Each structure stands twice: as structure tokens, then as C-alpha cells.
Amino acid sequence: MHLYVMARGNRDHLNRWENDLLARYLPYEYEKGKPKAILQLNVRPIQIYEIAFPAEHLNEVLQCVKPGGYERYKFYEKLKDFFVKLFGLKPIPEWKPDGKFRTPTVAVGVHGIGIKEDLFIDGIEQI
Questions:
Q1: Does this model's pTM top 0.85?
Q2: Domain boundaries in the chain?
Q3: By the 8 A CB rule, do 47 and 76 touch?
């Protein structure tokens, strides 16, 4: 079962709320005829990040962030479409890893939504 909720509040209180949820363990039957295992309540935040940087560093930032696709997550694909329209985003361009930037992404699913170019005034990017 998956329950989707939106929560807002002071960051410290949200962290405590999330930690309290993570402290919950529930019996879980993982195989018929076997004793039940204890499963930690699995709290998976779905967060949207706006990452601002100079346009000339796009490939470097994409290497760090490693935005991927939605092969297994049709729900996220629908959310992506919503945010693309809401924020007026363009597709994320292809990027080439060069091995210089390593950002750990173990157990982190990073799904690309889109990009928005900055306004330039007198040749200066307004980040």
C-alpha cells in the first residue's frame, strides 16, 4: 500500500515528524508459511529541487545531479508533465559524463523534469 500526502511546516518539525514515522516497525508476511518479518515504515520523500547555476556549467551540473528517466515510474511521468507546463520548462539536453564529477546517488532516484534559461541583461545572466 502506498499513501501519498503533502506536508509542510518548519524544517525542524518536519524532520521530527519524518523521524517519528521512520521509527515505526510493522509485521510483514514476506512468504506464505514463514514467520512474519518486521518491516520499517518506508518514508520516501518526493521533493522538487530548483538548482540555479551559470548556464556555461550546464554539462558539469548535469553530471553531478544525474537526472534520469521514468522507465518504471509512470506516476512521476505525469507529475513531470504537470510541472513542465506549470513552470514553462524545456527538455533537459543530453549530457556527457566525463568522470570528473562524482555525486553519490545510491538509493536516490533523480528524475529529470526540465530546464529554464535565465534572463540576460546587458550580457549578464540573471541567475
A1: no
A2: 1-45, 47-127
A3: no
